[in-house]
Amino acid sequence: QVQLVESGGGLVQAGGSLRLSCAASGPTFSILAMGWFRQAPGKEREFVAAISGSGSIGSNTYHADSVKGRFTISRDNAKNTVYLRMNSLKPEDTAVYYCAARAFVATMKSDEYVHWGQGTQVTVSS
To answer: Quick check: 22 and 4 in contact, CB under 8 A?
Structure first.
């Protein structure tokens, strides 16, 4: 069983920055691929970023085109935590942001992740 707890969301003005954190329970964090997804009101859940776990091959990180150059995913295995640094925030980034986990290999498909956090609200005002 993996428990994920997001934090760091809030209200920020356009152009501002936030750092989201996702803390995972258990000693198996290092092998987990971690992803960030978001869902805006009335919209479908959207891939944001992902990072592979230890032992995987191929690309280490992925970022959606809509956030590339502004958002950066990273992880600290010693702290069992994955981060999403969000810079130059836009009103279009307003959404509930969810942390998710799967084994080893990062993907961009939400239905391939089996562990999910409760989400954290990010609201960007204009």
So the answer is: yes
Whole-number Å distance between alpha carbons of 40 and 48:
12
The pLDDT score that the predictor gives to residue 58 is 58
Beta bridge partners of 19: 85
**What gap in Å lies between CA 78 and CA 98, rounded to an integer?**
21
Among the listed residues 113, 125, 55, 122, the one whose alpha carbon sits nearest the alpha carbon of residue 84: 122
Q: Are 77 and 54 in contact (CB under 8 A)?
A: yes
Stated as kind and residue range, the H or E segment containing 93 is none
pLDDT at site 57: 67
Integer Cα distance of 86 and 104 in angstroms: 24
**How buried is 82 (Cβ within 10 angstroms: 0-12 exposed, 13-18 middle, 19+ buried)?**
buried
> 71: which strand partners?
68, 86
Q: Residue 110 pairs with which residues in a beta bridge?
A: none
